[in-house]
Amino acid sequence: MKITEIKSCIVGPALSAEQFIAEHFFVFLAKGKMNGYDGNKHYVLKPGESCLVRKNHLARYNKVRDNNEFEKVIIFFDEVFLKAFQKKHSIVFKKFISKDAFVKLKKNDLINSFLLSLEPYYNNSGNISPTFSAIKREELLLILLQLHPELADILFDFGVPGRLDLEKFMQQNYKFNVSMERFAFLTGRSLSAFKRDFKTIFEETPNRWLLKRRLEEARFLIEEKKQKPTDIYLDLGFEDITHFYFVFKKEFGITPSEINGPKRD
């Protein structure tokens, strides 16, 4: 079997649609394409490629089917598992520093052989039973640390985000649709401190500022870049096109489709 012929499989919890990464996970793409964005960089994962997606980061990703096919292998490395692994194995730290949410991994026969070895353990839903999942996760992590020793500094850092420049962080990440609790955590603050500091800096509540900032960007993209409302509303943190139209008209007095003429969208 070719490595790009394997079927989808998940070891760990179902992949959340939330744009906050709560646990590290490995992803290998067999068919299709995956586009990722972390507020700073855009990433593309193609068939035969793999990457590590890092916890405590904001990230957005979408899948692009190829001939209506999209197959991937996702394996989670949660903190409980990683702490147990650290007790069992000697970890060497490399003082590696990176802000990227997506860390591309080398193509290697060890990874390919590991992925092919998973198929006998699949059940009908594409999951591996708990009896074998811990063993297979340990095997993969040993392979990754051999190929990329610097990953130790990412995977075994169990600290929480430190206090960040709030204004800079929010200007960079306002498009992500996550809760105020997540924004507070990622900027190293309690929720009450986050709201207090936010009001001091922006002279607005977080919810009001986020809405206005997203709408301003939406108008710029539609008016200046000639983009369609249906193409941008999700990327700007709006969940529903109807709600997007409603708040846009409330803010600017016209609907998004009226900016460049009635036939725009």
Summarize the structure.
This protein has 265 residues and is of the alpha+beta class. It has 2 domains: 153 residues, Jelly Rolls; 93 residues, Homeodomain-like (Arc Repressor Mutant, subunit A), CATH 1.10.10.60.
SSE ordering: EEEEEEEEEHEHHHHHHHHH
Described by strand count, sense and barrel closure, the largest sheet is: 5 strands, mixed
Number of domains: 2
Give average pLDDT, whole number.
Answer: 92
Shape: globular
* Portion in strands: 15-25%
Q: Note the total helix count.
A: 10
Please tell me how large the radius of gyration is: 21 Å
Describe the structure.
The protein contains 10 helices and 10 strands. It is of the alpha+beta class and 265 residues long. The strands form 3 sheets. A 5-stranded mixed beta sheet has the order 1-9-3-6-10. Helix 2 packs antiparallel against helix 3 and helix 6 crosses helix 7. Strand 4 and strand 5 form a beta hairpin. It folds into 2 domains: 153 residues, Jelly Rolls; 93 residues, Arc Repressor Mutant, subunit A, CATH 1.10.10.
